[in-house]
Amino acid sequence: MTRRHHLSALFAPRSVALIVARTDSGGEPAWVAALRERFADGPASRAGAIATRTVALADDTAADPARAPPGVCPEAIAPGAGSGDIDLALIATPVADAVAALHCAARLGADAALVFERGDAGQARVLAETARALKIRLLGPGSMGAQVPPLRLDASRFGGLPSVGNVALVSQSGVLAGDLLDWAGDTTIGFSLTVSLGFEADVDLAQVLDYLAEDGRTKAVIVYMEAVTEARGFMSALRALASIKPVVVLKGGRDSSTGGKAPRTHSGAIVAADAVYAAALRRAGAVQVRLFAQLLTSVRYLAARRWPVGKRLAIVSNGHGPATLAADQTAMQGIELPEFSAQTAAALRDCAPGVAASNPLDLGVDADPRTIAAVVEAVAADPNSDGLLVLLSPSQGRDMRAITDRVVVASRGLSKPLFGCLLGDRSVRDLRGRLDAAGLPVFSTPEAAVDAFSTVATFHQNQQLLQQVPRPLSEMERPDIEAGRAIVAAALADGRKVLTEVESKALLEAFRIPVSRTVLARDVAEAVQRAPSIGYPLVLKIVSAGVAHKSDVGGVALNVRNVDELRLQFAAILESVHAALPQARLDGVSLQPMVRSRGMRELYVGVFRNRLFGPVIAFGAGGTRVEMMRDTALALPPLNGFLARNLIARTRAASTLGSFHGTPAVDEEAMVRVLVRVSEMVCQLPELAEMDINPVLLGEQGAIAVDARVVLDCAPVPPGPRYGHMAVMPYPSHLARELALADGRSCLLRPIQAEDGERLQDFTRGLSPRSRYFRFISALTELSPKMLARYTQIDYDRELALIAVVDGEGRAPAADAMPAGDGQVIGVARYLLTPDRETCEFAIAVGDAWQGQGLGAALMRALIDEARQRGLRQMEGYVLAINAPMIRLMSLLGFAIERDPEDESFKRVRLVLDPAAAA
Questions:
Q1: What CATH number corresponds to the domain at position 590?
Q2: Which domain range does residue 620 map to?
């Protein structure tokens, strides 16, 4: 059974009421008058089949919210839907009257309300509390409204309903949304939904993204955003949406703010707030653009019928200059211009003799329409590219209309995405319209065309990042987590948040990160005594929690060759640091070997905690100039090898890791291992606030951490799920365990992974028609590609999917077996959090041959246990009334079984997980 989304009343209403402040229209704003006119005629042409009604607040109650409940809906100005059956209430009153209007909406039976006027934070809070008490979902206040072109619903102040299309626009700025819609008005670009979020007192960006993931009319989403207030929900919703639909984001409000705190490590000093958002968007599988113009070009491409699935572009032009500009832009955007295949080159010799078969392909100023069309067909068939850009420039003697028409005809039989660029303006305006009408994205400059291609192609590239769900602990040797936690606990018990270098390196060693040996000398005599155990030459460094950057205050001495130099440098370090920081407590000087760095690269690994997104891992060029170089890339943990390599590749330092000028290449995989180990630290130590490992020396023989600084935070970890301090939940490998079945056999119970797609499909196909119908309430025989992605590429913050697996002999495989091995899914159970994030809905299916073995009960108990661990209040589900075995199982597990008031053929089953909360 398909149930309406909790925001369906807002974005797919069956009936709408407009609530205004006065019975007469005099003195009201023009936009309110326009809404009155738009919704005055009931189910008329302007609102399609949606029933509409306009009501006015009584003058004597509107100004006094306390008097609102008795009778604030005195009359209906126009006939329409009767009281009690309104889905959506549009509140076009002054914000001071909005609370009374919400009570009016509740009396009309509204499930959702949209408040146009903007108030202050206090008014927004009161509105949210009122809406929550009335069980009404609230958009706004301060929303410019929403439009649903497929339903011909214009509940907005945007000034005209756009064409119907497949792109949704979600904006935290109503003005910018209106600008974009106005720009699209002269094109054939259409929209499935447009929405201005306003204050987000209740319905926020994450919830709208969640709705769009299920909206069948929406094929792609563009977002203008400035900030989010809750990162986990935002990341979870964005990941779920981007796993099935392209999402392009323009973020405003970019700055380099560090949040007002003085950074205590390089990590805190060199990272801008926008860079963290960029890392989060990339990790969620979305594409970030930097300019409003790029958002516009993205809309044009996303509205097309076909999108590229790779970053290889072929370019055909009838002029050298435009082709050169396009090629320059591909280099800037990282777009590949592949060589044509031998077969394509031969075809080009036949249809365009004398033209060099190179990419970009310049046909010259005199190319006729037939030649251009033949070349387009030949290049579009080339297997080495993912898309084709046709650049056309007008000039005297060229029949641009004939050329355009030929390109349109040629495009109809192509399987590869084709898009165009018509340079110029006055003479080609109507020709752009012809390409637009044919469903071909068309741009006015080569740079805009390449940008649009890059944006959409990058989405598919980012899908590889989205599909990664790393484990909190890698498959490498298990770290000594207990030793690491003991180091942290000892420092916090001592009242210290900053670890000494010796403690920092001990912490790294506990997580199997190679470090240079370091000992502490509290005075020069102890230094002389301990130096032989290290061996000359030495490096001396000040040890003090009050010194953030040792080199800046003369706290480092390199290449100390003998005992005499040791005495001199030890004294010099203490004197220099004391002079620079007289209040700092000096604990001594550390001694470590002088690592010969010839041929080794100085790199940097850092960790810092972002206020919204939690811990972030940084990598880049290291050394004393790390803040000046600012060659840093960021990634949200957890990391695996794939994500670590991607992080390295996004820095300029990556180009220095190979061999050059006689210097051998370094062991890049050793750096990958260090980054994964740092990810393990972040997962297991929520107290880790900041960390610098700088430099990490990387050479042929591996990596070694020469210096480290760790800053802790003694704030308690908030209650909630395990790894709740992170924005992206790791794969919950701790849930994997062997399960005994009633007949003596066993299976492996574990969370699902993206790699389980084929297994899950086989499981679905193997179910009997009856079992499939009980699970999906349909006659489907297999999962669609989108359903398969939806069920396997999950975000473990919002849902849990457990599968029971047996090997080829019907036994439990090893708990650490990877999905690539042999195995068969025999049962699946999952829960999904509801919007309040306090309850969850479950679903379960067991293979026919494995029913009656206690597997269903075991799967459900595992779900229930984990839901309780998360602190959820209630679990619920819907079971077909004829599914007697499932109803018996629910009764056995303690679920309350009730009649579903919406559909007599279903039973609603509920289990209270937290009796105290329920009471």
A1: 3.30.1490.20
A2: 471-515+597-731
